[in-house]
């Protein structure tokens, strides 16, 4: 559907400008203007469904008016804005599937002891709420905990003005999904547990002991051995009793079944301590503590073994309004008759589950007001009075169903229900106390202010609702005016975007002013490109809209049509077709024309050089400039098309004066010959001196006349990059004709493949668009300066390559560690150079055209600044396990003399060995103090790393646990020993030998250690490392035991890598305590019930 709309929009666009491709801007007439601005479109009937004319400016349909006409403006529900009547109860809003929460909130609220305990809860004594910053803001308290939100709900149910209260904040604080229906009994039990734990911090004993004093009961289970008659008793507490109703018709039947004696026999035999063995026994339960509020859950949801599903029992059950629990008590032998009154309960609430299924349904609460003895049904936001009809509690609607029923007196005062799920009784004495003290506790000042704020906000919403009604009437009046809309020559133009916005505005929102700026062109008239974004309306409707909402600018229909923009658009399309046709003509001419046609004939027309990129893209560049020109300028009447490029760009060619014929003089040719001869002599001189060992090589090298400033740049940098930079023309802005064959000197480029000869016929076409361009005819020679530089660069490329080959020949042993002698006293002293210089030297020999040429041996970096002594120990620099390893490179006397002839040296360092090939002394001597200081600094710097690699090695070579782990992928340039950071140093004099690759057989490869790499930073802890290991090996951190290769165990999970001196590329050994580790995906089960909510914290 969306693609079809796009296609239709494109078709409308083409139809709008179909006339402009063949019409010159000076030939535009009124019919073209009418077609452009859709003035010939049909007048549609307003507010009718016209999908086919979406872009018709006369059609006032599809603006979103249906939501007003069908009264679907989504205002705030009337029930949420209703004020509660005096001495009436309020309802609770259902947020989707929260009826079970609403029912239980009503049940607890109507219990004075529970209500008062929650209202007396002190947020300053709550471990979480006391950190709420709004507690200390005057009149700004907003509770954050679930208890605080529950307290606010109860306060609003008591003192609020709303007829319906929204419990969304309370439910969100519990993190309960409002779209999933849950079990009411489970929610009740979990929330009471939460409240009990939260109330333990309160100093008010009625709050702290609320659950224990009101909802907690106790029972005694007595097991009697049938052999020895020994009795064994155990005690337990409960908040409610779950009673089976299957096969029972009354509550007393279910209670008798619950408390009847149970025979323990067969597999269920009881172990008797007196008999010292299992015996048949009986178990019977007695109540030993009665709660003030007695709750019974009727087990309507049972598991059907045949269908393998949970089903609901819809059988009716009768329950008395007054319940005597004496027979279920473990009473003392002597008790008077008056004490029996303490065991009587009066029914005060029934929780109903409506629906035949166990998986879905609806909860309502039927509660008896103790003050008036009137029964009420709380069905979310609906509160109704109930009437007892026979054995049933009926609403007014349900009473109609029992009209035919004979009215009889219920002598036993029993009720019955097929949907009763929970029965709640109050102790008889407690009920009398509630009757005499039916007044709730006084709200705290903070809570009173919070309720007053909520009431004020509610009153403001009511006021906004009234204002919304007025706005609604205004919009409906406008709908009537739209129906009578009539557009003539004095009509108005208005933005579709604003009209759609108006239709989406809700009644209580402030309407923005009319905004027509989006449909204006640069002349502040209607842009012809925005015709599909406007509507043409009658002046009467426009007067009413501007009178109500102001704004603008107001656009009259015929006088606000921008004809200048129509001319510009026509000129743009006309020019586009023109340049495309002429570009095709140029391509045809070039295909039929050959450069050899006029090579041998002087009578033939002159040909010219034009860049390949220019020929390929000239029409696109010109048209882009033309479009840019139209953004700020206009095509005037009688203006010649095409407009020349200089007018479009408003600039002249900056290099036209340089584009002249250039002839190479004899002096220039002779200069180039001298350059070549000098370069050849320099190469030969350098080679002979290096081979003969003469000391003046460096001086003659420096005296060579070729080393000027430009050549130094070419020598010390990438020659190719220098040559490319020489011909770089990207600094020229904006684009110019033939800019791709003009060098930075303003002459024709020396690159042969970037240009081609074209005939005069093509030039004539180009001159139509670019009349001020200076042309290169076929006799024009390339830039002599670019040729000279290119020649010099080529010479230097050859010099660098030959120099690299010569130095490689001379220093092949030093560079590549071939045929190195063992240290001896005969060859002492040995000179030292830095490994950094040697690596730079190697890089130059490998790639002589990249990077700088090494000039100086900088040995001062090997000395300390304080004493000018050696920072590294020569003998320790040969040991792979020492800090000094690879810090010094030793060279022989012969190599040192050759290095002196080729490079400058800032300081000489020499080392001596004895006849046992051991180090004796050095000049300068080793500075041990600065060496230790340097070692500590480097170690500290080495420990400051970010996201580097370390290796985790499983410390179990036999794979006894059967782990399915990935094999470590060896780096081809790394041996096995290198993984363990234990590369064995060469015994030769040079410690920079390349490590040779070890070759393994297939059986040896199978025995490679199981190693994985992880990325770590110095600030990360051992626990974070274990979590990364868990992602690789699927082993929880608690089952990981880590240690270093030195055997140090990493036991402190809070220690960082820096504190443990873990360096990059280190190896950490890990042992897994699990019996088997499978590298499979972890399967997570979907959370059910109240898992993941705040109710599961306790």
TrEMBL record:
GO terms for biological process: protein deubiquitination; proteolysis. It is found in: Nucleus. It comes from the Eukaryota. It catalyses: Thiol-dependent hydrolysis of ester, thioester, amide, peptide and isopeptide bonds formed by the C-terminal Gly of ubiquitin (a 76-residue protein attached to proteins as an intracellular targeting signal). Residues 90-428 form the USP domain. Keywords: Hydrolase, Nucleus, Protease, Thiol protease, Ubl conjugation pathway. Residues 997-1070 form the Ubiquitin-like domain. GO terms for cellular component: cytosol; nucleus. This is ubiquitinyl hydrolase 1. The lineage of its organism: Eukaryota, Metazoa, Ecdysozoa, Arthropoda, Hexapoda.
